[in-house]
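User: Last request for today: this protein with zinc ion, please.
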Amino acid sequence: MNILAIESSCDETAAAIISGNPSLLEEPKLLSNVVVSQIDIFKAYGGVIPEVAARSHLEAILPVIHQAFSDAGFQGNTSDDWSKIDAIAVTHAPGLLGSLLIGTLTARVLAILHNKPLYAVHHLKSHIYANWINDDKIYNEMPQFPLLALVVSGGHTQIIRMEKHNSYKIIGTTLDDAVGECYDKIAKILGLPYPGGPAIAKAAAGEITTADGSTITVQPGDPKRYPFPTPQIAGYDFSFSGLKTAVLRAVQKEVNVPISYPSHELASFLSDQQKADFAASFQNKANQILLKKLTQAYHDFPETKSVILAGGVSANQDLRDKATTEFNGGDPEVYFPAPRFAGDNAAMVAMAAFYEIGSSVKLTDPYSFNIMPRSVIQ
Ligand code: KG4
Ligand code: ZN
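Assistant: Here's the final one, the structure of the complex with zinc ion:
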């Protein structure tokens, strides 16, 4: 069976095609994976503007799908060969309403037009299933159940326990900000570009990205230079708003201005080395907080066979290194998505749909379809 997947929840327009047999749950093959990012548009604004994102999706979505057909070799003369597609999957939630609308409307229309079964897929499930894309042959075997997934993205920070495919139990979540959002806000305070996560990681390694996109090299940041407190939150829940404020106060103190000083004007007082040190100290603490809760969860669920990292922040190398050290010895085995599948893409949507179909999840009616921008994984 060949599945066409579409993703448009934030600022990436993506389409992918995978091929496999869900009833045998055999490892599917990725035939194409196209991602068009709007990052260059939003760099100028320092963040995503939802209305602009939706319009960009509208322009890109059909060419992106067409490219996915072409890359998979699914074209008859010049047009897409729909006889090769057996199902359509699309991200339905959570995300920006206008962005989701473009992807879901496109998928609904294509499903009706070409008479294909439609599967609405939750974005966080897709991030988790990015760990099942073994195209780069990183792993000898796929993640094993029961597993713990640390989902860290721009909008979510959760620990999810899975006993089998398509079964999710959220055991921990952030009580305020998501860790990715925190990376993005701290980057702004430090005068680093959007998206903040990769810019912070680079700055921590001593590579400061300037406003014109060039790089200034300094000493690698000192992760112990600015000690930030660890939030004391019960269970497996997280809090990142305190860390965000702690970094802001530390920067204000360092440059000797009152706490009422506008945060967007602080960066001009910081040296590039101070930026690197703040980036490294923040990254270190944010990742320590994540790993502390994940380790605690593993301690309480010792039968866990795999620990998987998912979502945009799972691209962070320091987080990967810390997780590898923490679970050293391969019991449980730690999984990360290949870097190109950590951020938003449609291959992960196709993979989540593949395992949903394998678990006999019911079809989505293309005529009555609800978009739920803040829906919860269940
Ligand atoms: O999963 P994602 O691409 O989109 C959402 O579903 O939200 O995650 C985006 C988030 C952003 O906050 C971005 O700054 C962060 O992932 N991110 C990173 C890195 N790459 C992306 N955070 C830390 N280190 C990175 N290397
Ligand atoms: Zn995402």
